[in-house]
Amino acid sequence: MADLHVVTNANKHLYGDALDEYFRLRHKIYVDERRWMELAKPDGREIDQFDTSDTVYLMAMEGRRVVGSHRLNPTTKPTLMSDLFPQLAFRGLIRRPDAYELSRVFVIRERRGEQAQPRVESVIMAGTMEYALAQGISQFTIVMETWWLPRFQDMGWRLRPLGLPTMINGMSCIGVVADVTEEVWVETCTRRSVRGSVLVWNGLEPMAPEQRVAAG
Ligand code: COA
């Protein structure tokens, strides 16, 4: 089973090679595979304005190999929803220290749709909830293609739309907010055969919620 490593500005020096591989994988997946050509970079690393010192990467790793990931950004700073797609939140943007935006979820091709349990995608989703609970994050905002809606529902996540489905570059997209609760975490683990904690805090102290809010 893959582990989900928490990688932040504070411990990224321990993940130099893995982070480089991670940005190359993003290029391979989003530019070469999904053909989101506006993300193309001459050096083959897909890095954008939302990869900052505040970004948290939850990296699914098998040994030292990156097999998937999720990216988190604080909603108090610029996000995809605030800066690129505000039309997806016409009822108003969520900007709170305890709300983070999720983006760039992926699993490498060889590890998708596997029958072996738990799937890498399940480890990422369960671990994302686990991380939020450990950090006192109460909501996630997400800009996503609408095909995700039944998938999230099937995992037990509780989503509310922030606007209407909208066509962007030929894709039906929607802005949503997802509640973080222990019930949702347990539900995700149960439905997706994830047996408990999947997070690795290499060189980090998991911060108690009250410390995080004070620091933020
Ligand atoms: N459009 C529509 N549906 C899609 C899709 C897409 N681009 N990608 C995945 N799905 C849906 C399909 O229902 C698929 O079922 P199918 O086998 O009947 O086609 C289902 O998701 C399972 O996807 P699969 O890729 O087999 O496995 P997974 O659950 O292990 O991984 C992703 C899902 C999305 C993580 C993986 O497909 C991936 O990394 N995709 C590329 C990155 C990406 O597009 N991320 C989302 C935008 S940030």
The CATH class is identified as Alpha Beta
Would you tell me which CATH topology applies?
Answer: Aminopeptidase
Mean pLDDT: 94
Calculate Rg over CA atoms. Answer: 16 Å
**Tertiary shape:** globular
* H-E order: EHEEHEHEHEEEHEH
The main pleated sheet reads as: 9 strands, mixed
Write a structural description.
The chain has helices at residues 16-33, 80-84, 120-135, 148-155, 182-191, 209-215, and strands at residues 3-7, 56-62, 65-74, 99-107, 139-145, 159-161, 166-168, 171-179, 199-200. It is of the alpha+beta class and 216 residues long. The protein has one domain (3-200): 3-Layer(aba) Sandwich (Aminopeptidase). Strands 1, 2, 3, 4, 5, 6, 7, 8 and 9 form a nine-stranded mixed sheet that branches. The radius of gyration is 16 Å and the shape is globular. The model has no long low-confidence stretch (mean pLDDT 94). Coenzyme A binds at residues 29, 34, 104-107, 112-113, 119, 121, 147. Coenzyme A (COA) binds next to strand 4.
